[in-house]
Amino acid sequence: MAFPEPKPRPPELPQKRLKTLDCGQGAVRAVRFNVDGNYCLTCGSDKTLKLWNPLRGTLLRTYSGHGYEVLDAASSFDNSSLCSGGGDKAVVLWDVASGQVMRKFRGHAGKVNTVQFNEEATVILSGSIDSSIRCWDCRSRRPEPVQTLDEARDGVSSVKVSDHEVLAGSVDGRMRRYDLRMGQLFSDYVGSECGRGCGTGREDGGPARGTPASLTYPSLPQGPITCTCFSRDGQCTLVSSLDSTLRLLDKDTGELLGEYKGHKNQEYKLDCCLSERDTHVVSCSEDGKVFFWDLVEGVLALALPVGRGVVQSLAYHPTEPCLLTALGGSIQCWREEAYEAEDGAG
Length: 346
What we know:
It contains no helices and 28 strands. With 346 residues, the protein is mainly beta. It has one domain: Methylamine Dehydrogenase, Chain H (7 Propeller), CATH 2.130.10. The strands form 7 sheets. The chain has a 4-stranded antiparallel sheet with strand order 1-28-27-26, with no helix packed on it. A hairpin with a 5-residue loop joins strand 22 (272-274) and strand 23 (280-284). The chain starts with 15 loop residues before the first strand and ends in an 11-residue tail after the last strand. WD repeats lie at residues 21-62, 63-104, 105-146. It is found in: Cytoplasm. It comes from Rhinopithecus roxellana.
């Protein structure tokens, strides 16, 4: 006689504040977990990047080398390197252990909004308000990018990378997915008039070519994109726009699968993501909260009060119900209600 499989535990949302860390680096522009979720990075308006153990609340190292505020950062798969981008138009490769600048890549014509490593941490991809994504070889001494993706007609606000795809969101209202294996570009327009089935106008862009980054185009009037991401299972893409709406799209067809509303996002570049088990859509908000929606039902599950002001950035742990939020000059660490902190970590 076979025993029935145990039912999976219902998802738990991180709503218990464990710690608030005053980062001491001006306004925190972004907070990011490292690849295994044991550490986090904070990007400061004071030109610094800091590495923390968020559960213990300990500062491990400060990285100084940018000439202006730091806007985004990422860690490599083996935790040996960091990359960052900021208002000085530079992309910086750091050695984690020594805190030293290993490389500083210059070439963008405007501030760098977003940076990501590829899976092997051999290439850094950077997105800028100059409408381009540039790919920098970490192993080469050449100063110029190995590839430039310049199809966007306005600033690039978000870049995410999978093993063979690059997902980019732009102020021009389009989410572009570059399939590097197939050499194809898929483009979905996400505007405030977007209805079901929107975003199915697909382009085969082939190798990167198109709009020169030096040309300027007026922004489209609808739906500047602030953040994009892949679902953890790789089947969907999530996109947030300045019409205070998040949309879930089928990655392959572009079909609109769901819309999520209730938060406020009309002025700022705010983060969104999916929870560690793809059960909930999560977004920052300009009213001091973080919103959680049930992915399938589309209903609001939790409006988590963080504080007064704009919750500008968030990061979700890769495997556990643990959330980091950034508001003003501090970050907050949240866990599920049943979580009991280990000695020294509470």
